[in-house]
Amino acid sequence: MTPRAWRTLLLWLFAMLAGAAVVWSSRFSADISFFLPARPTVAQQVLVDQLKEGAVSRLLMLAVEGGDAAQRAGLSRDLQGRLATLPEFASVQNGDARSQDAARDFLLAHRYQLSPAVTPERFTVDGLKTAISNSIDLLASPAGMLLKPYLTRDPTGELVELLGGLNAGAQPDSRDGVWASHDGRRALLLVQTRALGSDTDGQEQAIALIREQFAAASRSAGFGALKLELSGPGLFAVKSRATIKREVTRLSLISLTAIVAVLFFVYRSPRILLLSLLPVASGALAGIVAVSLAYGTVYGITVGFGSALIGEAVDYAIYYFVQSGRLGLDNWRQRFWPTIRLGVLTSVCGFGALLFSGFPGLAQLGLYALTGVLTAALVTRFVLPPLAGTAIQVPVPARVGMALHAGLRQVRTLRWPVIGLALAAFTYLGTQHDQLWLPNLSALSTVSAADAAIDARLRADLSTPDARYLVVVTAPDREAALQAAERAGQRLDRLVADGVIGGYDSPARFLPSAATQVARRASLPSPDELQRRLQAALVDSPLSANKLAPFIADVDAARRQPLLGRHDLAGSGLALAVDSLLLQGANGWSALLPLRPVGGEQGTDIPVAAVRTALAGSGALFIDTKGQFDALYGDYLHQAVWLSSAGFVAIVALLLVTLRSPRRLAGVLLPLVMAVALVIAGLHLAGERLQLLHLVGMLLIVAVGSNYALFFDRSAGGATLDTATLMSMAVAATTTVIGFGTLALSTVPVLHAIGVTVGPGALLALLLSAVFASREA
Amino acid sequence: MFRQLMTGLVLASLAATAHAALNLDQLMAGLAQHKGGRAKFVEKRTLAVLDRPLVATGEMTYTPPDRLEKRTLTPKPETLLLDKDRVSIERDKRTYSISLASRPEALAFVDSIRSTLAGNRAALEKNYTLQLSGSSENWVLTLSPTAQQIAALLQRITVSGSKDQIHTIDYLLADGDRSELTIEPLEPR
Questions:
Q1: Does the domain made of B20-57+104-185 have the CATH classification 2.50.20.10?
Q2: A629 in Cβ contact with A440 (< 8 Å)
Q3: 3-state DSSP assignment of residue B176
Q4: Mean of the pLDDT values across residues A383-407?
Q5: Rounded to an integer, what distance in angstroms lies between the CA atom of residue A115 and that of residue A129?
Q6: How confident is the model at residue A48 (pLDDT cuts 50, 70, 90)?
Q7: Measuring CA to CA, how many Å separate B136 from each of A235, A744, B12, B93, B132?
Q8: Do A542 and B101 touch (CB under 8 A)?
């Protein structure tokens, strides 16, 4: 090797080591942020915070199945007891009567701070008269059984008021004293992890602990027949990460093994084989380094895309080894490198367009592939030749050459059938235009249908609201956020009274703002005054004022009670309700008020316009989460259409500038466009659910396929399309199809969609370019 | 002397049996034949905490075998619906719905009236000891709770009627409060 070659090699080695160091310290992630918008709107930011840090993202729903009801209830209690003591869990609820009683006792003890009915008017003679006579009416009814024990302490019925706000209708059923599914066959628990929803490691650990404790509990009770079912955002995150991890390894292995086998069959030389993999390894490493440096975090799905990159990046080495054998290095550089360089540039245009996507996962894929392809090409051009030396000869058997040329002649007879087929595909796509693309984000979700069904069932059994409609208020501190929630609540109360919405939750229901608590406290009269007013109010009542000493004592105690804070809620089960609705973010606090639809005949939709009107000017934000997600995906899709078009235009411009001939441009593009149409029409006919990534795949067919079309263009330009060139193209196309085709095996929708589009697309691009290649040298 | 007393007692009890001419099975069979229907009710509650009783009135509709709707009209409209093991109460436009499967003692309490209307002796005997007295024209059925959980709420229920028609249901609660329900059918069955 020459000194210059040594220098190049050392430089390369140094770059690789530096890259390895970067990768070593990179943060890899397989969480949901792959799909979340890079530049969110205010409403989207609320959703992002919810998904990453919200209490809802920390909830796990548990169901105990099998055995009999008593066994399930026993296990539910045991498991609750075990989990509640572990620091990994913030709250573990199973609807046990003890915790229900604790919540009721808490509400009773703090009723004069919590009840919205506590106003100065309530404690006037008239107010007391009305409230107490209401309570007495209630006593005459079956519901009065609940109230009777508290009548002398709470004659104005504040406890009833508070329990009504808890929405008794939405409580889970219970059997043997613990929560159970509606059909009674499963005992249910609701667990909130201490770990954030975005902390997949923490979620994994929490889930493992739950399973461990369940196994221990059923062992100690001797209930072998009981099973645990679990669902929640944390489980989805853990499962999705496991799937991606498994697939990254599996897909890369499949792709690499198949490509190595093909290359060995062609080269028959382990040395050339190893050298060929050099640009690939460099490209894959450089891709991860670039992503890590640009984004800080590398998504697992991005690494999974590596299996396609292997197939694409190995092409340049194939061209070099197969073509340069007889030409010599300088000759190869002069005659073939410009074509290869143009192919690299078209690929760069395709992947580069993705960089501008607001869909962070897509932008990362773009940067990874772009860097990988560029690095592989540069390594092939500058590092490979000095390393390989000149004594390289890849056998090009004569019978292969004959077969390839015969095949080429054969496929040309297919021109008209292919044109007919392509026209049919275009027509079909034209008629299907409106229902081609799936309109929602769920198309990208890695959650399996079976897991989604379990989740939906547990949610229904636990009456967990799906929180589709949210009112959000933000403020610099907790007190201000609670006050804002109270103001929004007053407007929502009117909507409830008018029957526009069924109800709503608010953190201020169990943790009123200090201002409100102070105002309520100030409404309470002194014992003597209250005694006097009661005497006047209860003149004609069946309830005599002198029986109400406990009431007067409680009101007097409430006047001196300290203000209720978040820590007072601990252990009452109400803490979870408050924490899930009151979030501290980077820019202060936000309070969430989930709305419930009226239900019944009006269905589960809420009249969005009416709610917006009611909240107008209050500073509260009304969010229809489903609408937001649909809009988000719509934005991604719209942007992908735009970026794909821009990428396509860039490729066309690049080719036009380089080829300087509209006719040659048409010769290169026509087969590619036909390949795209045939693939998309074929996939749609085959029932594939087409989404955003299939759309991106269309661009990549053009970007990747153009490499092959350009070689045929060379021959159209008068250059020889000799056997070695043909063979290199066939081998290169094979490796690319293997690389992308492997992705089609993936269960991760993002990877599957690209693979299933670009794999067949690249093959068709080669074949159609051959069909339409105008002349044979 | 002792012998005479014993004989007297035996005779007296025999005489009582002969006179009643109504046993529990007959009563239950008669009640079970009801096709359901509508009735007016007046409910009088006597509570220790209140100086005078509370009176509520309304209508009841019974649809055999397990649906009972009690619609209170005064002093405040309220509807109680007992359907299988679910109770729902509608009041002030709000509906509260509770599954009683989880609370057997509450179910037994609420179920006493429904099982009596249905003439379901087996269901009643699960939770109560039954004692029947009087004649078929004027019978009195006393239900005494057997389970500790129910006894904590309820001392006894006394149901009176003639033939297959119930006239009053009297609940005596554990704390001494009582609730008397007087029923009057609205249409011939």
A1: yes
A2: yes
A3: coil
A4: 81
A5: 18
A6: confident
A7: 66, 82, 19, 43, 10
A8: no
Instruction: Name every chain A residue with its beta carbon within 8 A of the beta carbon of B94.
Output: 164
A614, A615, A616, A617 alpha-carbon torsion, rounded to 10°: 130
Is pLDDT at A587 greater than 90 in this prediction?
no
Interface test with B, best of A141, A145, A150 (most B CBs within 10 A): A141
Tokens representing B134 are 């009087």
Question: Hey, what amino acid is at B85?
Answer: D
- Work out the pLDDT band at A680, boundaries 50, 70, 90: very high
Q: What is the interface pTM, i.e. ipTM, of the complex?
A: 0.73
Per-residue DSSP letters for A624-688? EHHHHHHHHHHHHHHHHHHHHHHHHHHHHHHHHHHH--HHHHHHHHHHHHHHHHHHHHHHHHTT-
A285 CB-near residues (< 8 Å, 6+ apart): A16, A19, A20, A23, A375
Cβ neighbors of A61 (< 8 A, separation 6 or more) are A188, A189, A190, A191, A230, A231, A232, A455, A458, A459, A462, A464
- Determine the average pLDDT of the residues in B9-21: 45
Give the span between the Cα atoms of A229 and A496, in whole angstroms.
Answer: 36
**Domain edges within chain A:** 3-30+236-445+628-772
Chain A positions touching B57 (Cβ under 8 A) are: none
- CA distances for A536 relative to A128, A549, A556, angstroms: 10, 15, 19
- Residue A123 per-residue DSSP state: G
- Using CA atoms, how far apart are residues A751 and A633, in angstroms rounded to an integer? 17
Helix (H, G, I), strand (E, B) or coil at B160: strand
Structural element, H or E, at residue A71 = helix A69-84
Q: Which helix (H) or strand (E) holds B73?
A: strand B67-74
Specify the 3-state DSSP secondary structure of B107.
Answer: helix
> Is A180 part of the contact surface with chain B (CB cutoff 8 Å)?
yes
Question: Residue A32 and residue A236: Cα distance in Å, rounded?
Answer: 10
Q: Which chain A residue's Cα is nearest to B99?
A: A173
Q: Would you call A3 an interface residue with chain B, using a CB distance cutoff of 8 Å?
A: no
Distance between CA A115 and CA A106 in Å, rounded?
12
Q: Using CB atoms, which residue from B54, B91, B101 is nearest to A143?
A: B91
Inter-chain contact B47–A174, Cβ cutoff 8 Å? no
Q: Do B102 and A547 touch (CB under 8 A)?
A: no
CA distance A738 to chain B (A): 59
Amino acid at A38: A
A175 touches chain B (CB under 8 A): yes
Cα–Cα distance for residue pair A58/A50, rounded to 1 Å = 10
A142 contacts in B (CB within 8 Å)?
A: 70, 80, 89, 110
Residues paired with residue B158 on neighbouring β-strands, in sequence order:
B142, B170
DSSP A148: G
Of B41, B70, B15, nearest in space to B170 by CA: B41
pLDDT of A740: 92
Distance from the Cα of A177 to chain B's closest Cα (Å) equals: 6
Task: Specify whether the CB–CB gap between B108 and B124 falls below 8 A.
Answer: no
CB contact under 8 A, A543 and B43: no
User: Does residue A705 have a pLDDT over 50?
Assistant: yes
Q: B49: which DSSP letter?
A: T
In B21-143, which ranges are continuous DSSP H helix?
24-32, 104-118, 121-127
Look at residue A521 in the predicted model and tell me its pLDDT.
92
Torsion angles phi and psi, residue A622, rounded to 5: -105, 125
pTM score > 0.80 for this model?
A: no
- Please name the member of A138, A142, A174 whose beta carbon is closest to the beta carbon of B102: A174
pLDDT single digits (tens) A315-367: 999 988 888 877 778 888 888 888 899 999 999 999 999 999 888 888 999 99
Total length of chain A? 777
* Assigned token pair, A740: 């992308």
Q: Are strands A227-231 and A469-475 parallel, antiparallel or unpaired?
A: unpaired
